Amino acid sequence: PINLVWQKRARPAETMWRIGLAFGLGVALEALLGWLLKRRRASSSTAIEVIFFPSKVTCTEELLAGVPCVCPLPHGESALSRLLVRVLEARRSLDLCFFAFSSPQLGRAVLLLHSRGVRVRLVIDSDYMALRGSQIGPLRRAGIPVRHDQDRGYMHHKFAIVDKKVLITGSLNWTTQAIQTNQENVLVVEDQALVNIFVAEFEKIWENYNPANYTFFSKHEKTGIENA
Known about the structure:
- The protein is of the alpha/beta class.
- It is 46% helix and 17% strand.
């Protein structure tokens, strides 16, 4: 009888313990589920497109002119057309940082964006600005700001930033040879944390290559000129 009474008295406490345990497990499971969903959303927010070159030759006139083309060239998708589509998605800004830029199709795409009011900036290597077919002249004449290095090392970056949200990078220079002949790769990445790193790098280079900061003479030469 004593044991029975004890058991009866113990049951409410045991019941409360079980309720507390169930509640605690429920909260823990809810927290775990929330964490897993957050991880899943975070991982799914990174979109990557890979484009390999060389590109087959196709007509890109419809992309650049916005009208159907009846030329004899193939009109299907190509590596170049895929790259053009991603570049032409820019609505607010396009920051370009390339070793060489001579592709007429990509040059037209950049000019088209500029005419739409997209803010375009270009950083290029000084030694390759006058490359045969270089697009630097047409871009500058259109009013697009172009800056270049002033040191012995190459400005060897190859990346573009679309609207500060999409990074286009890889081994590809924007040249006809690279596009049509070379084995190259391009990654199109939508990951804000990674994009922000490249945005910071571009801004640093842009400021470093500001013509107002150029030093055209050594300190000794400057002193001699000033004293002349």
